[in-house]
Amino acid sequence: MTVSGPKADLHRYLRYAREAMLWKLDGLSEYDVRRPMTPTGTNLLGLVKHLGTVEFGYFGDTFARPYDEPLHRTRLRGGSHG
Q1: Is the pLDDT of residue 11 over 90?
Q2: What's the pLDDT tens digit per position in 12-33?
């Protein structure tokens, strides 16, 4: 039985998107996951980190959940990655 509704639909969408990302990374060596793939130096591991950070920030804001402002907000705005 498939549950329907906005919350269930969002949960299903996110689960499928995460599974697709993991499927694309499955079997890659650590070198391949960390290897720069664009002129800016983006790699697949960085893309996974970016997706997680965006989800975390979005849901933290949406559901008023506290999180470490300097660590996560700075990265979402493209600031220092220190």
Answers
A1: no
A2: 998 999 999 999 899 999 999 9
Q: Which residues contact 47 (CB under 8 A, 6 or more apart)?
A: 21
**Helices vs strands, H then E, count in the chain:** 4, 0
Dist. CA 78–CA 25, nearest whole Å: 25
Distance CA 25, CA 46 (A): 12
Q: pLDDT (tens digit, 9 = 90+) per residue, 60-77?
A: 788 877 676 655 555 545
8-state DSSP, 68: -
Nearest to 50, CA basis, from 8, 21, 13, 26 = 21
- Contact in structure between 44 and 52 (CB atoms under 8 Å): no
Query: b/e string for 42-58 if b means 16 or more Cβ within 10 A?
Result: eebebbbeeeeeeeebe
